[in-house]
Structure prediction request, 614 residues.
Amino acid sequence: MFRAIGRLLSWIWSGLDGLRKVLHLVLLLVLFGALAGLFSRPIPIVPRKAALVIDPQGPLVEQLTGDPLERALARALRSQPAETLLRDVVDAIEAAADDDRISALYLDLGGLAGGGLAKLDEVAAAVDDFRASGKPVIAYGNFYEQSQYYLAAHADEIYLDPMGAAYVDGYANYGIFLKDALDKLSIDVNIFRVGQYKSAVETFSRNDMSPAEREESLSWLESLWTTYKTNVAAVRGFEPSHLQAYADDAAGNLRKAGGDLAKMALDAGLVTSLKGRFEVEDRLVQITGEDGGTGSYVGVTFDSYLANLGSEQALSSRAARKVAVIVAAGDIVPGDEAPGMIGSDTLAAELRDAAQDDAVKAVVLRIDSPGGSVFASEVIRREVEALRKAGKPVVASMSSLAASGGYYIAMDADQIVASPATLTGSIGIFFMMPTFQRSLDRIGVHTDGVGTTALAGEFRLDRPLGDISKDILQQTIDRGYQDFIGRVAKARNMSVEQVDAVAQGRVWSGTDALKAGLVDQLGGYQDAIELAADMAKLGDDYDVEYFDENVGIGEAIGLRIRVALARVIAPLLPKATMPVVPKALAPLLAEAQRLARLSDPSSVFAYCIACSVD
Prediction:
């Protein structure tokens, strides 16, 4: 009996072992099949007659946030807000203008969340070039926000949903002021700054905007608004004052339209016609023909289109000489950082790589930054200076923002190119340190002790700053400001007095910065590329290479595997939820997050908090 049971168990074990081997083999086949699928993704096909669909999601950015692996996982898990790379949109539109397969451009702008007027202008210029090729540009929106309408205005035909609106309200700079709240909490914020207009600290030191900040803000806001009105008016065929009246007398205009926001936009000539999405798609069918599979128009998304172009370019020969483009986007902090923040060591290494690459003949430093750490900015500036000493021309190309530390890292370039809508300057520095001794006293917590020197214990957060520490800090800030304007004077061939007159922490639009001598010319990214190539005497025989986000073959394999796994497990995981923040508190949360990102060994910053409008 025991022998029979043993034979039965042996058969069962053999069967299970055989099943294990079969399952193991099946699993391997599935794995290899999945990997084969991952690495044999078909190249997107561009139909012979199609509309290129430009449907940006989130803000336009100069550099996507996070490294490629993080972004891929976040995209698969849908755990990160959407962003659209500016150069992808511009490259796609520019290529489509000369591509016989593309018969129209379709601007579907509902997902666009701004990004700054300078970036919008880069896209608008590409749209204008596309129109010049003789191909139609169609724009549609359920509801045009101001940034969305700026691009839509450059279309031949602008359609708005009959239940929508074109909301154009100009530019504003409003902030939250916390002095009373800090007093009630018995928190002392010790502030040291240089610059009449260095308003970054006013959030903590005042209950309202200072007269100097009010004067400065209105100046650059008016400059941005003038640029917006002028450019929209030029393509829509009316005077800039017409757009001013559209916003100023919105209530009266709406009354004339019988309370119909869409009709108000139509009556003002901001849109061509009121149509729903499917009616607009029928219009596109007239241009591209009908897609047999969908029954709608024939279209290709701009990311698929770029993938197709990339495969073609990979097979083409590349020029031996290069203009390197190095992107500096985000707050400036010491050390290494992933894209979306400017780590001084990370950016310095990219600049050094360009200096050591014999194929690189010139460098464009593309900047979109409100600044940050003075220490980190100086680390980057030295590498820009070293590039010039190595005989490689450097052109700083300013995007929507290159202020404070963002200007600091640009000033040593051979040439500085800014958009008319760039916010720049803000040449000034500050130090800020809260102390909580009064808060602790209120709850019965007290600090006392002794030290061996007059300086010992002076910088504790639970003690008030003494006269010695205040004197030290103010001297440090004064010296930092003098260093800043001295370096600007040297780089810009100006006297220190001339720089000081346009510094003082004041923010300038690109147009006004040119008049002040802080930039060399107005233009966009492509102008900067051509200028760098011209300075290096490259003619037309050069290639443009981005020195960021380099992914090796090992990382590429890992990336594909991680993305595949993420897509498999994503449905099994609970959906990531962000804490719901009341809309009224969102500005306060944004300020807190911004301050939390700031980092500097000496807590000395060149940063422009006010420079954030779309």
Observations:
- Residues 318-444+453-563+595-607 form a domain with the 2-enoyl-CoA Hydratase; Chain A, domain 1 fold (CATH 3.90.226.10).
- The first strand starts at residue 50 and ends at 54.
- The first helix runs from residue 2 to 38.
- Residues 35-40, 551-557, 575-581 have pLDDT under 50 and may be disordered.
